[in-house]
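Deliverable D5.2: sample structural annotation.
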Amino acid sequence: WNDGKAIGALVDAVGPGLCPDWEDWDPKKAKQNAKEALDAAEKWLGVPQLIKPDEITNPKVDEMSMMTYLSQFPNAKLKAGAPLRPRLNPNRVRAYGPG
């Protein structure tokens, strides 16, 4: 959880397209990653921010606070009008023929 990528993956799993590029997030930008995921979860999934980005990226995060936050996701519902983006992965692009 400390680099923000896992929470991005969770948000994208519950709302496919909310954080499609979580795999490419820079682990050195942990707070930015966590903020993007937490903001998307709150705005588009209705998951309240019970924990802050700087808390979630802290290696000594309070386990009970984290579990309380994560327990909100099974009941999360994607709201209408959510800005869903396709996953962009240049490694999966294939071109065939002369070029």
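Annotation notes: The mean pLDDT is 89. The CA atoms of residues 8 and 22 lie 5 Å apart.
The annotation will be released with the project's public dataset once the embargo ends.
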